[in-house]
Design goal:
With 91 residues, the protein is an alpha+beta fold. The chain has a single domain, classed as Arc Repressor Mutant, subunit A (Orthogonal Bundle). The protein is built from 3 helices and 4 strands. The chain has a two-stranded antiparallel ribbon. The protein has a two-stranded parallel ribbon with strand order 3-4. Helix 1 runs antiparallel to helix 2 and helix 2 crosses helix 3. The radius of gyration is 16 Å and the shape is elongated.
Length: 91
Amino acid sequence: MITVYNDKSFDFVTKTPPVAVQLLESSKSKKGSAEPNREKVASVTWDQVKTIAMDKMEDLNCFTVESAMRMVAGTARSMGITVSGEFPGNN
């Protein structure tokens, strides 16, 4: 992200790759599902979701790792990727 100011100075901030891209890499899938509620294209584990959440923690709008994991799982669900197993955090 580049921010340019009136005096021609600028700030340059690099961010981590989007969650969707990291989910595709972890699931070894080429793309998400066209119909995520009907057609599932891949599966990831909660450990993979936790790794992505820890990586994206600074860019996400959440305070705990569990809430970041829920956000990543929601992105996976909207892409047609299932998250296998039980949620390891506090319910």
